[in-house]
C-alpha cells in the first residue's frame, strides 16, 4: 500500500529538477549543435542553413588554431605541473607527523577565490610600475621587466591558472595517501626503504587510480578556463593568450557571430569528452581496495 | 643529515605556502595606501592606514561595489536556496527509487556535470528572450541552478541513501504523509549534506563570471565578479582602488572558508573541484 502511495510523490519531487536540467543543459547542448549549422549573426531572427561550413572555417581561422594550440599547451602543463607539484607536496606532508591541517588550509586559499579575483591579482602583480614582480626585481637591484608581451602573454596566464588549483589536487592526493594502511608503511620500514624509494615503489603505484581521476579532472577543468585569462589579457595581445573559452566569448559577443560561436562551443564539449575518455583508457588499472 | 633533510622538506612546503598567502597579504597592505605610496613602496607596510580607497568603491563612474554586493547577495542566496529546495526533493525521490531507474537518472546527472557553460549559453539567451526574462536576475538564477543542480543532487542523494528506511516507515505508521516525513525526518537528518552542497553552490554562484557577464548586460544588476573584471580598464592608474576592490571581493569567501573549512574539504574530495 505504502509503495503505491509514494510513487506518485516521487515523480513530482523529481520532475522540477529534471525539467530545469533538461532545458538548460541537454536541450541547450543540442541547440548549440543545431545553431552551429547556420549562418547566424547579431542574434537576428533570420539564420540560413549552411551545413558544416562553420566547421570547415575553423581550420582556416588563425585565431581559432592559436586558441586550440594554447589550450593544449595549457592542458599539457596543467597535467604535469598541477598534478606534479600537488603530488610532491602531498608526499612530503604524508611523511610529517604534524602540520597537515595548516598546509591544507593555506594551499586551498586560491581554490576557493574567484577566477576574476585571481586574474586581477595577477594583473596587478605583472603591472610595470607598481607590480609585485617588478618591486621584487627592484629590491634585488635589477631592471624592471615588461611582463605581458605577445611572446610572454601565454605564460602570464598559464601560471595563475595552474597555480590556482594545485591545492585542490593536493587535498585529493593526500587523502588517498592517508588511506594506505599503516602495515604497508611498517613493512617498507623493516625492509629499509628510504622515503624516496617508498614514494616511487609503494605510494605512487598504490594511489595510481586517484592520479588517473586527477588527470581527467584537469582535462575537464582546462576546457572550462575563462575568468583568469579574460581578466589578465582578454586573450591578447594579438591572440597570444587566446584559449577556447575566451575565443568563443569574443566571437559570440564582440564579433556577434553566434552560428560560428556555436560551432566552437560544440568543438569544446567534444574535445573535452574525447580527451577525458582517452585519458581514462590510458591510465586504466585495477582499483585497489584495502582489506582490514 | 637527517635534520637537514627535514629542514628541506619544510622549506619546500613553506615556499609553496608563501605563493598562496603573500599575494593576498600584498593586496591587503596596499589597499590601505594611497596610490602614490604604492608606487614608491609597493612592498612595505603602510605608513598610516588610509581608507580612501575603500570609500571610492561605492561610486566610481558607473561601477558601484555596494550595489554589486547587493546583486551578488540576491543572485547567490536565491540560487543556493532554489538548488537546495529542488535538489533535496529530487534526491529523496532518487534515494528511494528502484535500482534501474536510479541508474538512468544518475547518468543523466553525471553527463550534465560534464557540459561546460560555453556550450549552453547561446541557446539559454534565446530561451530567456522567448519567455521575456532577458537581463533579469531570475534568468541568471535559473541558469546557475541548472548548472549546479547535478552536483548537489548527487551529493545529497548519496547521503540520503544512508538514512535507514525504518525511520520513514515508523513515521508512516504514525500517520505522517510523504511530505511530512520528508520535511520532519529526512531534511533535518540530511543537514550535513545540505550544508556541503549549499556552500559549494553559493561559492560557485558568487565566483561565477562567464554566465553573469553574458546574461546581465546592465551595470545596475551586475554582481561583484563582473564589476571586478571591469576594474582593470575602468580604474586606469588608480591602483589603490583596484587593491581595495580586490580585497573586499574576496572577504566574504575567506570568511566562509574560515568557518566552514571542514565541509569544503569534504565536498572537494567528493568531486566538487572544478567549476
From TrEMBL, chain A:
> Where in the cell does this protein reside?
Cell membrane
Keywords per UniProt: Cell membrane, Membrane, Transmembrane, Transmembrane helix, Transport
- Kindly list the GO CC terms recorded for this protein: plasma membrane
CDD domains the record matches: TM_PBP2
Mostly located where?
membrane
Give start and end of each ABC transmembrane type-1 domain: 68-279
InterPro entries xrefs: ABC_transporter_permease, MetI-like, MetI-like_sf
Annotated TM spans: 12-37, 72-93, 105-126, 153-178, 199-220, 260-282
Q: Which PROSITE patterns match?
A: ABC_TM1 (PS50928)
A Gene Ontology biological process noted in the UniProt record is: transmembrane transport
Membrane topology according to the record? Multi-pass membrane protein
- What family does this belong to? Belongs to the binding-protein-dependent transport system permease family.
Q: Tell me the protein's name.
A: Sugar ABC transporter permease
* Organism of derivation: Dictyoglomus thermophilum
TrEMBL record, chain B:
What subcellular locations does the record give?
Cell membrane
Any one GO biological process? transmembrane transport
InterPro entries to which the protein is assigned, alphabetical: MetI-like (IPR000515), MetI-like_sf (IPR035906)
- Where is this protein primarily located? membrane
Q: Which Pfam families match?
A: BPD_transp_1
Q: Which UniProt keywords apply?
A: Cell membrane, Membrane, Transmembrane, Transmembrane helix, Transport
Keyword field contains DNA-binding: no
Q: Which PROSITE patterns match?
A: ABC_TM1
Q: How does it sit in the membrane?
A: Multi-pass membrane protein
Residue ranges annotated for the ABC transmembrane type-1 domain, each copy included: 69-260
Q: Say if the entry is tagged with keyword Cell cycle.
A: no
Going by the entry's taxonomy, the superkingdom of the source organism is recorded as Bacteria
Sequence intervals crossing the membrane? 7-29, 74-95, 107-128, 140-160, 181-206, 239-260
GO cellular component terms, A-Z: plasma membrane
UniProt lists the family membership as follows: Belongs to the binding-protein-dependent transport system permease family.
Question: Which protein is depicted?
Answer: sn-glycerol-3-phosphate transport system permease protein UgpE
Species of origin: Dictyoglomus thermophilum
List the lineage, top down: Bacteria, Pseudomonadati, Dictyoglomota, Dictyoglomia, Dictyoglomales
